[in-house]
Structure of Sialic acid transporter:
Amino acid sequence: MTTAVAAPFRFFSLQVVRTRRLGPSLVRVTFSGADLHAFHSDGRDQSLSLFLPHPGQAEPVVPLELGDGWWQGWRELPDGIRAVMRSYTLRALRRDPDEIDIDFALHTPAGPASRWASRAAAGDRVLLLGPAVADNRAIRFRPPEGTDLVVLWGDETAVPAATAILESLPAGTRARAWLEVPHAGDLQDVATEADAEITWLVRHDGSPMAVDAVRAAQLPAAERPYVWIAGESGRVKELRRHFVGERGIDRRRVTFVGYWRRGMTEEQLRAAE
């Protein structure tokens, strides 16, 4: 069942096709659905809202029958019944057959989404609130015309978007990226035609983290750099201050997105916004 939401977004009823463990902290889940032909996105950091069932439920409970009133109806459902909602980014979209990949960061202690992803199996059902229009407001990576250097930083929650961005960059694009993950086993091969230098930072191996690693680096000379930073909101704010305050990059050329906040659930984070 699908229903229209505020265009250009709509609900898609999906089921798991397969899963693939990418490392100790990452699992890729591939989904299909009868309506995925209507899913469109040109963004490499396309944001999505995923609704997951509680243990014992066959599918997530979202009152789609209420039409535009679904949000209020969903919020009024009891905690143990109401579908778990979490924000993710699209890792890949394929046609023939229509499939999407979403990469999940696994952590301890596991939250409801991490727990669901670690146990996901073919046939499991979810609901996705995603784009029906390729260019939409939930895409944040938008380098201005004339950009001559792309700079990226992301932790494990942003690695799916960051690697998708790197893979999409045109041949010859100069790029510098720092990707932070918990374990060495989480490192991935990134197939990109860009002139990209990618540094993996492994927390459990004692690598310098976030601001320290970036601050110590010498960036290639550029007149029109563009910076994209995503992950834990405290780190993201620190890095934004570094690029704007210490490196003097025009704040209008710095995109920053807090995907999560240390010590807070997504429900608490939404309530605080």
Summary: The two ends are 31 Å apart (CA to CA). The domain at 9-131 is CATH 2.40.30.10 (Elongation Factor Tu (Ef-tu); domain 3). The helical segments are 70-76, 112-119, 159-168, 210-215, 233-246, 266-272.
